[in-house]
Specification:
The protein is α+β, with helices and mostly antiparallel strands and 119 residues long. The protein contains two helices and three strands. The chain has one domain. Helix content is 45%, strand content 24%.
């Protein structure tokens, strides 16, 4: 008689549940990290733009607002950005609350700092 091999039904159901929970988390969290990357890219482009080094705070905020509207950034507004001149850098801290199910969710803290010349 051959020994049976393979996964049991209960093992399959448990593995499926783990995969489904991981997929749910990924679907909910990935947009927040994608938005973080968009904010980081926009701020880095502004800081490394030679025209922005001598621009006023209003012009810098306006440039970010335009880039943010194109990238569909909603977690950060132009007014949230801190502008430092020596060295020229932009800095922002923000929070994203991701609801998962009913009263259970995730609280994600992000911090973006773009310094002229840094990548």
């Amino acid at each position: 008689m051959k020994k049976q091999r393979g996964i049991t039904l209960s093992g399959f159901l448990m593995a499926s549940a783990i995969v489904i929970v991981a997929a749910l988390l990924a679907v909910k969290i990935i947009p927040a990290y994608s938005e973080y990357e968009n904010i980081k890219r926009d701020m880095t482009e502004i800081v490394n733009n030679p025209d922005m080094a001598d621009a006023s705070d209003l012009e810098i905020r306006d440039a970010f607002a335009k880039k943010a509207s194109v990238d569909d950034v909603s977690s950060v507004t132009a007014q949230d950005i801190q502008i430092d001149r020596e060295p020229f850098q932009l800095h922002v801290k923000y929070v994203v609350d991701v609801p998962l199910v009913t009263n259970f969710g995730l609280h994600l803290d992000f911090e973006v700092k773009a310094i002229k010349g840094a990548k």
